[in-house]
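User: Last request for today: this protein with iron/sulfur cluster, please.
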Amino acid sequence: MSGIYIHIPFCKKACTYCDFHFSTTFEKYRSEMVTAICSELIMRKETLQDQIIETIYFGGGTPSLLTEEELNIILSTIREKFEVSVDAEITLEANPDDIDVSKGEAWGRLGINRLSIGLQSFHSESLQWMNRAHTVEQSLACISIAQAAGINNISIDLIYGLPSMSDEVWREEIRTALQLGVQHFSAYCLTIEPNTVLSSWVKKEKIQPATNELQNQHFTILQEELTNAGFEHYEISNFALPSFVSKHNSSYWKGAHYLGVGPSAHSYDGKYRSWNIANNQRYIKGFEENIPAYEFELLTKENRFNEALLTGLRTKWGVSLVELEAIFPLTPLFYKQLEELKEQGWLEVRDEVMYLTNEGKSWADKIAQDLFV
Ligand code: SF4
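Assistant: Here's the final one, the structure of the complex with iron/sulfur cluster:
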């Protein structure tokens, strides 16, 4: 299974917490960006030669800012140059303020069959604090608008662990979201990333980050509410109704090959990982001059071992000890750490596969690091 990711580096506003690559001043060069993305798809088509494309994912940034024509140019290039499965999952990330019936219908015409909506919250203060471009009314209305346009595989993003967010407010957010009738949730704990507005607020002591206890408590509430509502917790931040697991994101966690195009996008072909320059002008220039700006690394056995742990432990599929051993021999130190994590109640092993317990899910990255080569 292979996938294509397209990074659209445009946003209306800069959210306070965001460290993705994007620009808010893109109108002058938006068509050059679409042309450069298509040039990259054509230039790198050999990367996924002889492979069927099962998933296409427009991420960003804000892909819902693209017009029907711009999306069509990119999708037509993909369909022309790659072998795309007839039932490929084609996802578009959209922000609530970009969703209207005519856009939804246009997305349907293009074959986009899944929306991932950056809704984040139903509270005005939280949306303003995060500098989101949409309102609570838009958060509440966007799902029914998308459904009216015929899209019935919808995921929403929510953010928890804001410093001022109480348990009650968070529980209410989830319950409001559940009433919207979506099939998938991605819920992220707010983190303070370097070079964001939030990190400057922390440095200036304008805000006090939430404690780990508060964030873990929110995570527990999230698990309770969504699993009680019939959602499967299939990855630390992701919950789905049966048969609505994101195929695209799951393929990353299962080590599938993918091609990422657009500024800052990453690719993986089983041996090499590469990443494009995170600079819009230099990205475009690179394709105009036929000298693409990217870097790559050959993954060592140690890299592949550690990545298998880091990604696999986050999922319901866990990490097979047999498959790990095939990458790099398991040492006595590894088994010692494994026993300690089991005794702590954070990890369990069934049929030679390691899984995080519900408690361990709060410490996924730390647990993986304890087991790294
Ligand atoms: S819309 Fe998304 S990508 Fe753009 S700044 Fe906000 S969080 Fe970042």
